[in-house]
Amino acid sequence: MGTTGYTTLSRQTGLMREMRVVANNIANAATTGYRSEGLIFSEFIQSAPGQESLSMARANIRNTSMEQGQLTQSGGDLDLAIEGDGFFLVETPAGERLSRSGAFSTNAAGDLVTMDGHRVLDAGRAPVFIPGDAQSIKFGADGTLSADGRALGQIGVFQAAEGTQLIREDGVMFRAEGEIEVAGDARILQGFLEGSNVNAISEVARMVEIQRAYEMGQSFLETEDKRIRDAVKNLLKST
Fold first, then answer.
1. Which site among 108, 111, 122, 204 is 20 to 30 Å from 60 CA-CA?
2. 106-117 pLDDT, tens per residue?
């Protein structure tokens, strides 16, 4: 296979990866707090004295969009959405994680938990407790929690400190590689949920573009394979 074939093959591999990323975005277009993901292509050029340079396409860098998703009123007392930058902090078996998904409930012990049963933490990074006999639960814009008019605490809204990298673990959960700090400008909205920030129409259009690009590359590889086979056959006939 010539250098052009290797270049096309590397591009095909990248397109397959991007197709999986786009398909995952489309599948999570209705997932609360989901952050859409993209793939960044880069070029790797290999060269040596006296040899033809070889250009290879790579698609190994994933990029997560932190754009605000649409806020939808649900009316649930324990449904919370963040307006602005910031994340809820939740306690998981693997450690503390950041999430924008605010579809919460309470467990048997009265702890505020996520849909997966992970406890939600307050501004002091302690579990948020809600009395089981509370008749009225209110969350202020600053996250202050009160039950039947009695202040109980403040739900935490955090952001990555300078120099901290956020590692995506799934569609709604992130691990902070470094320090996190309380977000200053974010507002809590009670009775609202933040939807996915996926633009489904754009993602479907991108999927079509990827499929067409992949089909063109595949057609080229098949043509190149036939050319090489024919060249080998002709060479064998002449010997």
1. 204
2. 999 999 999 999
